[in-house]
Amino acid sequence: MVPPRLFGIDWRQPIPFYYLSLGCAALAYAAVVYVSRAPFGLALQGVRDNARRMAALGYNVVWHRILAYSFAAVIASFGGILLVWQNAQIAPGTAGIPAVIDILVIAVVGGMRHPIGQFIGAFIYVLLSSFAPDVLTTFGLAPDRFKLLVGLGFLAVVYF
User: Fold this and answer.
1) What angle do CA 92, 94, 96 make, to 5 degrees?
2) CA-CA distance, 38 to 67, in Å (whole number)?
3) What is the rounded distance in angstroms from the CA atom of residue 113 to the CA atom of residue 48?
4) How many CB atoms lie within 10 A of CB 18?
């Protein structure tokens, strides 16, 4: 599965694809920040904190949760499309437990209070996954065990 040629640009080339991904990430970030500050986002925060109180105030809690999951699914679908275009294929193992654990580690390391935290967490995760094999080789461990350092970093963040 290759990306379509739009506007005469070959999106399979690394530089155009990088800017396409960066643009999608910036748009997703702007959308999340906008929605979180809009009345709908404030209602979602109220539903998260105390659903019974929001229901007593007249908000339809179930409908707000459905719309929140739909909004998150739209953003995740753009990420999935970009992943398929980058790899030119999709496999069932792409959406397995290891990918979910990586996303959880990214969210916890970056922080879940502000949308920029996930970008920071992803940056730290990529740095660890890139340089951890070199560090492990220095200590005489197998370089394919880079998740050991990621796990230790995750435990340190959770502990502190």
Assistant:
1) 85
2) 14
3) 13
4) 10
Category of 101 on φ-ψ map: left (φ > 0), alpha (ψ -120 to 50) or beta: alpha
Buried b (16+ CB within 10 A) or exposed e, 74-91: ebeeeeeebeebeeeeee
Question: At a CB cut-off of 8 Å and minimum separation 6, what does 49 contact?
Answer: none
pLDDT by residue for the chain (160 residues), tens digit each? 777 777 777 778 878 888 988 999 999 999 999 998 999 989 988 898 888 998 898 888 999 999 999 999 999 899 888 888 888 778 777 777 777 777 877 888 777 778 888 888 888 888 887 887 887 788 777 777 777 777 777 788 778 7
Q: Please tell me the chain's helix, strand, coil percentages from 3-state DSSP, rounded to the nearest 5.
A: 80, 0, 20
The count of C-alpha atoms lying within 13 angstroms of the C-alpha of 69, restricted to the half-sphere facing its C-beta, is: 5
- Report the predicted TM-score, pTM, of the whole model to 2 decimal places: 0.75
Distance (Å, whole) CA 78 – CA 57: 34
